[in-house]
């Protein structure tokens, strides 16, 4: 991948989060497909992008309290919406995504991905620090091994990009996502420690307004 592509990749990645806030899911699916085309050549972009879109969409419905639409997407009325949406629907969608991307341990990665999204949905600051641990573990299990320090860096950059999103700072999110994608391919220099990663927190008033969900790629 040419270094000249990183900013464009970052812009597409960040745009997924921002169009999710606006509930523009057709556009989100297009952006997801473009991100996959830029970063995962040869994958079944259409089928994967649809699963990503469905995952964001059902989470948005749950965020908005639109339980009738959640029932419609699930095809039934669940006893426990939180468990059914995140532990089953989202997990199954991302197991499909990781399987199609031919990643290592797709079931385990999907479990972590759904757990990460669930943490953000709950808006519980006492549990927010678990999200970077889920993200880092996903990176360590991916087929493209990023190494220990590079894994910390990718986690840190993704977390900082997410914080930019919560501040409605598109440019700031793009800046960190460009660093994230560059490290994913070239594992550039610098040092990031767990104490930096675990400084991550979302003020409750921001967490209630923006979901912070994302697709790590």
Descriptive account of the structure:
The structure is a single chain. The chain has helices at residues 6-21, 25-39, 45-64, 67-74, 81-100, 106-122, 125-128, 130-141, 148-166, 170-186, 194-197, 204-207. By secondary structure, the protein is mostly helical. It is globular, with a radius of gyration of 16 Å. The two termini are 15 Å apart.
If you compute it from the alpha carbons, what radius of gyration comes out, rounded to the nearest whole angstrom?
16 Å
- For the secondary structure, the number of strands is 0
Count of DSSP-assigned helices: 12
Structural class: mainly alpha
Global geometry: globular
Overall pLDDT level:
79
- Compressed to H and E, one letter per element, the order equals HHHHHHHHHHHH
Give the proportion of residues in helices.
Answer: over 70%
Which features does this protein show?
217 residues, mainly alpha, 12 helices, globular
Give a short overview.
72% of the residues lie in helices and 0% in strands.
Itemize the secondary structure elements and their pairings.
Layout: H1 6-21, H2 25-39, H3 45-64, H4 67-74, H5 81-100, H6 106-122, H7 125-128, H8 130-141, H9 148-166, H10 170-186, H11 194-197, H12 204-207
Helix pairs in contact: 1-2, 1-10, 2-3, 3-4, 3-5, 5-6, 6-8, 8-9, 9-10
């Amino acid at each position: 991948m040419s270094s000249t592509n990183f900013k464009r990749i970052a812009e597409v990645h960040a745009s997924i989060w921002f169009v999710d806030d606006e509930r523009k899911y057709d556009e989100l699916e297009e952006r997801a497909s473009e991100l996959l085309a830029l970063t995962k050549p040869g994958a079944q972009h259409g089928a994967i992008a649809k699963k990503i879109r469905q995952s964001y969409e059902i989470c948005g419905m749950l965020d908005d309290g639109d339980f009738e639409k959640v029932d419609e997407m699930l095809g039934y009325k669940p006893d426990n919406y939180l468990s059914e949406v995140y532990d089953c629907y989202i997990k199954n969608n991302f197991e499909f995504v990781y399987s199609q991307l031919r990643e290592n341990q797709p079931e385990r990665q999907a479990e972590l991905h759904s757990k990460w999204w669930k943490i953000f949905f709950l808006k519980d600051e006492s549990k927010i620090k678990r999200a970077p641990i889920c993200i880092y573990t996903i990176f360590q299990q991916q087929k493209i091994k990023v190494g220990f320090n590079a894994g910390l860096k990718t986690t840190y950059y993704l977390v900082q990009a997410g914080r930019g999103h919560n501040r409605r700072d598109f440019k700031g999110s793009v800046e960190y996502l460009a660093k994230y994608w560059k490290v994913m391919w070239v594992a550039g220099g610098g040092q990031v420690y767990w104490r930096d990663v675990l400084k991550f927190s979302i003020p409750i008033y921001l967490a209630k307004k923006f979901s912070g969900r994302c697709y790590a790629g």
